[in-house]
Amino acid sequence: MVNVGIIGGAGYTAGELLRILVWHPTVNIAFVQSTSHAGHPITDVHKDLLGDTNLVFGEADYSAVDVIFICSGHGKTKAFLEQSNLPNDLYIIDLSTDYRPKNNDGDFVYGLPELNKESIETASRIANPGCFATCIELGLLPLAEEKQLSEEIHVNAITGSTGAGQNPTVTSHFSWKNNNVAVYKAFTHQHLAEITESVLQLQPDYSKAINFIPVRGNFSRGIMATVYTDCEWSLEEAKEKYQSYYSEHPFVSISNVIPDVKQVVNTNKCVLYLEKHGDKLMIVSVIDNLLKGASGQAVQNMNIMFGLNEKEGLGLKPVGF
């Protein structure tokens, strides 16, 4: 049995973690910490779990757990680790951006199983990838593995409103979000750094631009990324290479028809679709931003770290947004 704790238990990603972990056959949830809701039942916040658990937001007891999931806001994990006296043998899975760059000072492994599974197996600290990054990287890894990236990469990707987190902002209120879409952080999105590092891990000589246009969608959850770049493969060759690359990775599938976001919502799946247009290969990639893009992938990483079946606890379709 793996004893787990959750830090920052009131947000969207923590809620998804709880929906998975309360039914995970090899997990015991020892504590769920939340400064803003201390002493209250977690079902006051995550109401769909009523009847599934009697957990209360409480103090963190690191001596009682094997691993903690850190679901605090971006920029807070480094401060938390500096201020906390954690056991040396405690496993950490961080869902923030703080330790994703490879030049981090915390000995974290970048937790994309389809890229770094062997490293994850022996890691004690995991930097869980970003949602946009996961969706886009899974569309590019087979090309980078075969050194097929030769020109600029163009990406347009739209995400649901939960990608912005639980705290409301001007652009996340219903009256702005409803019946509306908008481009934001064009060419400058923070996930570009980890996307670039992942590509260079497989194809170190790639030096062209990755042009990323993120879009805020008017739906709650899911990401669809449309990626295109020059590629000398025929469509048949491309499909064979993608099938081969992901043959040992259970959550990635290659589809013969264009996927839609609802196909992957409430799952830990990534569905990829390929088309060839002249010299261009187009890849459509869809994931659930809160699961394969966050909490589902975090549990997938935990399973790998503890030698469990990679899919354990992730076959259910949790109730969510």
Automatic annotation (TrEMBL):
Which is a Gene Ontology cellular component entry for this protein?
cytoplasm
Gene Ontology molecular function, alphabetical:
N-acetyl-gamma-glutamyl-phosphate reductase activity; NAD binding; NADP+ binding
Q: Which superkingdom does the taxonomy of this entry point to?
A: Bacteria
Q: What does the record give as the reaction this protein catalyses?
A: N-acetyl-L-glutamate 5-semialdehyde + phosphate + NADP(+) = N-acetyl-L-glutamyl 5-phosphate + NADPH + H(+)
Source organism (scientific name):
Marinifilum breve
Localisation:
Cytoplasm
Q: Which residues form the active site?
A: 131
Pfam families recorded: Semialdhyde_dh, Semialdhyde_dhC_1
In Swiss-Prot or TrEMBL terms, this protein is called: N-acetyl-gamma-glutamyl-phosphate reductase
Name the PANTHER family for this protein. Answer: N-ACETYL-GAMMA-GLUTAMYL-PHOSPHATE REDUCTASE, CHLOROPLASTIC-RELATED, N-ACETYL-GAMMA-GLUTAMYL-PHOSPHATE REDUCTASE, CHLOROPLASTIC-RELATED-RELATED
Gene expressing this chain: argC
Which leading EC class covers this enzyme?
oxidoreductase
What Enzyme Commission number(s) appear in the record?
Answer: 1.2.1.38
- Organism taxonomic ancestry: Bacteria, Pseudomonadati, Bacteroidota, Bacteroidia, Marinilabiliales
> Main localization of the protein?
cytoplasm
Give an example GO biological process: L-arginine biosynthetic process
User: Keywords, A to Z?
Assistant: Amino-acid biosynthesis, Arginine biosynthesis, Cytoplasm, NADP, Oxidoreductase
User: What pathway or pathways are given for this protein in its record?
Assistant: Amino-acid biosynthesis; L-arginine biosynthesis; N(2)-acetyl-L-ornithine from L-glutamate: step 3/4
- Biological role stated in the UniProt entry: Catalyzes the NADPH-dependent reduction of N-acetyl-5-glutamyl phosphate to yield N-acetyl-L-glutamate 5-semialdehyde.
Q: Where is the Semialdehyde dehydrogenase NAD-binding domain?
A: 3-123
By its UniProt entry, which NCBIfam families does this protein fall under? argC
